[in-house]
Amino acid sequence: MKAELQEQLLSHFPWARPISGRESLWSKYGFSIGDGWYDLIENLFSEIEVVYRVKGREVDLEIVQIKERFGVLKVYFYGGLDELYELAHKYEELSLSVCYDCGGQGQHRRIGFWWITMCDNCEDNRIASANRKLNGRE
Ligand SMILES: [Zn+2]
Questions:
Q1: Mean pLDDT computed over every residue of the chain
Q2: Separation of 123 CA from ligand 1 center, angstroms?
Q3: Cβ(106)–Cβ(115) below 8 Å
Q4: What are phi and psi of 82, to 5 degrees?
Q5: CA 91 – ligand 1 centroid, Å
């Protein structure tokens, strides 16, 4: 995800910032997902805040990793409330219909050996760009 989008998310949700001074997958790689999934994270983090607000508590989870695996959004964290694991699962399911690149309506599909969730347009762009690279024109 673009650096400015990552920064935007972290400024909206300061509790998600990596713990300073501690090396982790999260501090090292940040949001290892496409720009199209920005809204999924924004919505997931908002829902997490609601869960805590209802209980009158501060958000106390630690993010371990946020990435794409076989075309599915994966959010791993440590600690926090039990409900959060259900929420993370809900957003995994939702990611199966959101385009990884543009955020439009996507479909879980395979490109070559890769599973990815994309719309037809973005898939065409990916394939065209991969072909240009193969032909040494990029
Ligand atoms: Zn798309």
A1: 94
A2: 7
A3: no
A4: -55, -40
A5: 18
